[in-house]
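Handout, tutorial session.
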Amino acid sequence: MISRIARSAYARAVAINVLSLAAASLNPADAAHTHRHARPAHHNASATRSNNGPVVAVLPGVLDANALAMPDQPFTLRSWDGTVETLRKRALIRSPSWSAIMIDNTLLQSACRDGLVQMLPAPSAPSTSPSPCGIPAGQNSIVLAWDQRRATVAPNWGDFWDVARHPGKRGLRLDPRSTLEIALLADGVPASGVYATLSTADGVDRAFRKLDQLRPYIVWWRTPEDAARIMDNGSALMTSTPADELAGAERKSGFAAQWHQSLRQNLSWAVPHNVPDADARRVTGILREQNPHHDDAPDNTTPDSGSLTIDDGFWTNHLDDLESRFQTWFNAKP
């Protein structure tokens, strides 16, 4: 008999694969980024090392954005796309690609449950990690980015939905996580009430009705690279995007970030399933000693009190159901 965990993992894999195929059939557009001031204490793409130490993979944009703070760099830095499909592929092969990965906490919870990442030795000091498989790694942000060449005043999520006053395409993540929260923020729900609303059937219906209003204008993205292409190509007037994708020095497309009502996502370090025990202990020790952490807030900007921290516990409990509902909505004819 198939276990409940196996059934859940299989159901998620099927749902994600359907959304992946649907997203691949789209032609995600692009947008751009504004340059952040250099941060000397942070490490950038040129800082990858050629020694035989651990290889640590960070989320897209982190290296270009110079957004990883740590006192030293005793490992090689690489980038990965942050998706469960890639993690599953890399974690279940014989030879590990990475000693550790940066991962958002909503994915960490399911990856730990499904055995894609390892349970770590208990820390010597109390930890704030929500999972025995993770080491806290800071936060990243999903922000509203808009093309300053076509809109001179910073918009909010309500303006994002107002295609009559602000005509043009809109970019959104092809995932219920962050997208449903944004829909409720646009519908007037305060950040403090988003998860209470989304915890009810009426609240979920409200979020999907809001998405219905914008559906003809949406350009979907699945990965941060997709969001970057939407900006680089000017395929949307506004888009949700990881803030790091606005920070690469090479990005000159004129998009800027609206930090009001940004979504803050907790991050962790995790060790893939196929990393040998000795290597896992080594990299775990390094990460706990060095405490490298992600910081994507601009030097001159602090996200205001209107920001929303994504509720890891909510998504641990509701991801399967809302992913299925989102898939059904996405595949339905308008």
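The second record follows below. Compare its token runs with those of the first.
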Amino acid sequence: MKKSVKMWWITTLLFTIVSYIFLIRIRHNSWYIFLGILILYLGVNYIVFLGTALGITGYFFQVVLNKEQTAISFYEKALKHNTKSGYALAAYGLILLKEGQNEKALSLFEKLHMIDPSIMIEKIAYTNKAVCLWKMNKIDEAIETLNKMNEKFDYISASTYTTLGFLYLLKKEYDKALEYTNKALEDTPNHGPALDNMGQIYFYQNDLKQAEKYFKKALEEKSTMVDSKYYLGLTYEKQGKIDLAKEYFKKAYESNVNAFSTITFEQVKEKYNQYF
């Protein structure tokens, strides 16, 4: 938690305690006076820190009440008032990323670095910034972003190593792709996306037996992975096992393709239309 946020909570707690002692214990005022003063204090704080307050309100609607559209309206207002809420910026950035608004999402993740976020939020900023850059076809910048993250923090998650491995795979630097994917699997041996990475690395080097092995393992660990279904279909197609290829192309078509998928819905649809 940021120092400024901690100080706000400490100040609010002290204000509440002092107000209670003075109004209730010493002056023997009614509870509604104490509550009125407390609400007034919180209201003034809401106005003074309006951008951050709006961002936190949006985050509440999204996470607690599961009302994403309402949350978005608060996030937009928060941005107009220069919000400093790391949770709001990270959450709204992710929504935009999932909607394919990569440039706008990127600007929010870059802003996160400027507000002195917590370690967790800063790691999210680095990772999702890299994903935005990848989706914008700025592969070298995406790799540079994750390498900076790697240098800054002692611990990097399997997901980050997997992403870095995939980015090197896109550049056809298979040795580095393998290096980082292995690091992901050393950290989390059953990490589905890392197993899918391994499958793609072998697939693009035409080692179809190893590719098939890893795609199957990936689906054993995470059965929803559209990437592995699609590539398993391609692997069987190359092997001449057309019935199996059709089976997995159909499974891929029936699965969800999202912003973090390594393939597009257009790729999946093309193969589905080819056989069905």
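Points raised in discussion: The chain has three domains: 1-84, 85-155, 172-275.
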